[in-house]
Amino acid sequence: MLKHTTGLILAGAVAFAATAEAREIKVGFIAPKSGGAAQLGDQMEKGARLYMKLHAKDLGGDTIKLIVRDSKRPGGPIAKAAAQELIAREKVEILGGVIFSPNAMSIAPLVTAAKVPFVIMNAGTAFITKLSPNIARVSFTMWQAGYIMGEHAAKEMGCKTAISGYTNYPPGKDSVAAFARGFEGAGGKVIDSIPMGGPREAPDFTPFFQRVKDKKPGCFYVFVPAGNHAAGVAKTYLSLGMRKAGVKLIGPGDITQDTQLQGMGKAAVGVITAHHYHADLATPENQAFVKAWKAAYGAKSTPDFVGVGGYDGMAAVFHIIKSAKGGKITADSAIGALKGWHFNSPRGPITIDPETREIVQNVYVAQVYEDKGMLRQKKLKTFEAVKDKCKELKIGRCGK
Ligand code: PHB
What we know:
Elements: H1 2-21, E1 24-31, H2 38-54, E2 63-70, H3 77-88, E3 94-97, H4 101-114, E4 118-120, E5 135-137, H5 142-156, E6 161-166, H6 170-185, E7 189-195, H7 206-215, E8 219-223, H8 228-239, E9 248-252, H9 258-264, E10 272-275, H10 284-297, H11 305-324, H12 331-338, E11 342-345, E12 348-353, E13 358-371, E14 374-386, H13 389-392
Parallel strand pairs: 1-2, 1-3, 3-4, 4-5, 6-7, 6-8, 8-9, 9-10
Antiparallel strand pairs: 10-13, 11-12, 12-13, 13-14
Helix pairs in contact: 2-11, 3-4, 5-6, 8-9, 11-12
């Protein structure tokens, strides 16, 4: 009898343990799902869901409930309200996503107060990680590409003068500041810097680009947010005959985003950018990633850097969950787990700097070329394990 009872108790304990162990972890995901930037939100979500699909077994019975909220616009208040709702009502354990910097900035105080870890999968203004100890970023900072592009333009492209044009909001200001620092540090001179409207509507670039053409710099460095802005840049450059006039178009890879590239046509051929990802990277990790992407979303679909941000962001979320080993996920434990985390991303090896909670990654200088009627990007140079220069040099709010 005694033996029998013990057996029952044991069986009950095992059954209890099994149900107690399998958890559903709620992850809030904020991204534009409507309006002009919907394509970016779609890319990031596709990337995140692809990682979830390919690695579902890694959570050993636990599952993720991804709760997606539409941030609609770059501005801030809608994303902030969404984060508030996800934290207070849905009680998400982890928050992630976010394309636009002002949205990430408006969410920062909420994740500090609620002690929720926030994994930024795109927003690139360098000082954002300074706004809360509960933020880790797996995307990029505008300084990583901007500074390297500046040095490259002066040292390797023979540009003695440059003009920068930028979408007038924090990542744009960051990008051109980084470019100027790299370019002038290597002996070049930035002779003008032109704000080209806000992030919400893609402007007609003609008057801005005409001003550049008239001043005839060697290089024209442009930052616009990826998506519908980027599509107009190469076209305006071509239609104004700027290449023929001897002005070289350069920028961060936001202006040669893989998903926009074919639509840019010949206008983009020759454009040189610096960035942490393009879909033509010839590494086994990236080739496997692109193949899995096409298998999931169709042969004509391609990932771009925003998709990789979602994919790697979800890899970070998985790492947080696995590190908790079934225990409670807190901001401290989650961010602690991400400090020093390594991952072999499609973009190359990445690490989260334990000092800054910022991504450390390769940056590639690449050039657009035509191959059998398709536009592709050819890697010219690799800069390995690039940290955020804005924090290294303690510039402005990065130094505080
Ligand atoms: C940003 O708002 O931080 C942002 C958006 C789109 C980009 C890059 C940065 O392509």
